[in-house]
């Protein structure tokens, strides 16, 4: 008899951050992860993670909705189904349920982790093999204080932990944000690349003013300056400035990617497994980008080690990304729930080795941070 999915457990895990993380729409002091434990009839357990930023501040799914919708709607569609055909299971979820991409991503990760453990292959090997074993990782400066951000960047450079920095802006008036960014770029000079993420906070005319000043200050990349749905505006900005635009919230999946490139977008796409419903969906988007000559960037919703490792296995199957990755989520957290944390070294991170994701849960830590 073939192996079937037997039981799916979802756990809310709250981990404090090492410092407040200030974005245009929220300030985080804690990250909540939804951890999926999926047990199969052969005794194998697959792990997955569904994580967003700031409750409902970032997108339409909250940690609580991710848990509730998996428990109530998604898990019952999977229980009793054969474990191994991940394409069929993905199609089944998408046939009977809409949206909930973070929840679906967590489930697909758990399926791939289990399948890798079953076949004694890493997730990257299951996907056809890794083309890279070490991926570059930037750091986000978002303390809300210019001097603290500069000190943090200098320390990361000295530690050889990160060589590229992304600044979260959009919470303050445009001119104040631009002064903050320019001061950091001036302090770091040619030693580091500095990018910004506006997280949709500007309208198009503010964006024109802000981006001109950022370009003059030597900023290398401008992420999601205007609201996600304004594809035409993002295309206009991409065509107007030399500094490239990075589409993030605007590009959730391959269909969004196709719309943007057909409309004349150039620049780069932020790939996130959480936006695209998992690894299969995000790789579809990556392939659209590659066909269109749009640059790739490995994005995060600030997942912990499980979600970060799943993303790394996906990115490892692609050629080196033009804009690197931001897979630093575990480093923003005070602690970890896996036995052997990811290995951050030499301005990047090593692809975890071993079957599946290559991670083992630390049951004591998990119990400690579990929401009661
Ligand atoms: C985002 O919008 O890119 C990624 C890094 C970070 O600090 O926040 C995220 C979300
Ligand atoms: Mg972003």
Automatic annotation (TrEMBL):
Statement: the UniProt record of this protein carries the keyword Transcription: no
UniProt GO MF annotations: chloromuconate cycloisomerase activity; manganese ion binding; muconate cycloisomerase activity; racemase and epimerase activity
Gene3D superfamilies from the UniProt entry: Enolase-like C-terminal domain, Enolase-like, N-terminal domain
Ranges in coiled-coil conformation: none
Keyword Manganese attached: yes
Cofactor needs: Mn(2+)
Pathway: Aromatic compound metabolism
GO biological process: amino acid catabolic process; peptide metabolic process
Pfam families found in the cross-reference section: MR_MLE_C (PF13378), MR_MLE_N (PF02746)
Alphabetical list of InterPro entries matching this protein: Chloromuconate_cycloisomerase (IPR013370), Enolase-like_C_sf (IPR036849), Enolase-like_N (IPR029017), Enolase_C-like (IPR029065), Mandel_Rmase/mucon_lact_enz_CS (IPR018110), Mandelate_racemase_C (IPR013342), Mandelate_racemase_N_dom (IPR013341)
Active-site annotation: 168, 326
Family in the record: Belongs to the mandelate racemase/muconate lactonizing enzyme family.
Name the record gives this protein: Muconate cycloisomerase
Organism annotation: Vreelandella salicampi
Higher taxonomy: Bacteria, Pseudomonadati, Pseudomonadota, Gammaproteobacteria, Oceanospirillales
């Amino acid at each position: 008899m073939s192996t079937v999915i037997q039981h799916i457990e979802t756990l809310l895990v709250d981990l404090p951050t090492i410092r407040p993380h200030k974005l245009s729409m929220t300030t985080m002091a804690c990250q909540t992860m939804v951890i999926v434990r999926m047990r199969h009839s052969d005794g194998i357990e697959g792990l997955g993670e569904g994580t967003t930023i700031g409750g409902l501040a970032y997108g339409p799914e909250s940690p609580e909705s991710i848990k509730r919708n998996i428990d109530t709607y998604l898990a019952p569609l999977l229980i009793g189904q054969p474990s191994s055909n991940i394409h069929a299971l993905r199609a089944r979820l998408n046939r009977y349920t809409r949206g909930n991409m973070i929840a679906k991503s967590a489930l697909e990760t758990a399926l791939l982790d289990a399948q890798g453990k079953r076949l004694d292959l890493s997730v990257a090997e299951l996907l056809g093999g890794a083309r890279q074993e070490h991926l570059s990782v930037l750091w986000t400066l978002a303390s809300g204080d210019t001097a603290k951000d500069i000190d943090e960047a200098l320390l990361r450079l000295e530690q050889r932990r990160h060589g590229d920095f992304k600044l979260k802006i959009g919470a303050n008036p445009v001119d104040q944000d631009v002064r903050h960014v320019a001061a950091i770029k001036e302090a770091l000079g040619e030693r580091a690349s500095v990018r910004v993420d506006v997280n949709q906070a500007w309208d198009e005319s503010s964006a024109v003013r802000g981006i001109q000043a950022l370009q003059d200050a030597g900023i290398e990349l401008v992420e999601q300056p205007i609201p996600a749905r304004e594809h035409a505006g993002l295309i206009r900005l991409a065509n107007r400035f030399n500094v490239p635009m990075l589409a993030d919230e605007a590009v959730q999946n391959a269909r969004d990617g196709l719309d943007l490139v057909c409309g004349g977008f150039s620049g780069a796409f932020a790939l996130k497994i959480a936006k695209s419903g998992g690894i299969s969906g995000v790789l579809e988007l990556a392939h659209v980008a590659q066909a269109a000559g749009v640059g790739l960037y490995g994005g995060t919703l600030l997942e912990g080690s499980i979600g970060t490792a799943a993303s790394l296995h996906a990115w490892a199957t692609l050629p080196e990304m033009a804009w690197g990755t931001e897979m630093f989520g575990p480093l923003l957290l005070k602690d970890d729930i896996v036995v052997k944390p990811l290995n951050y070294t030499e301005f990047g991170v090593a692809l975890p080795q071993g079957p599946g994701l290559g991670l083992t849960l630390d049951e004591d830590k998990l119990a400690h941070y579990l929401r009661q």
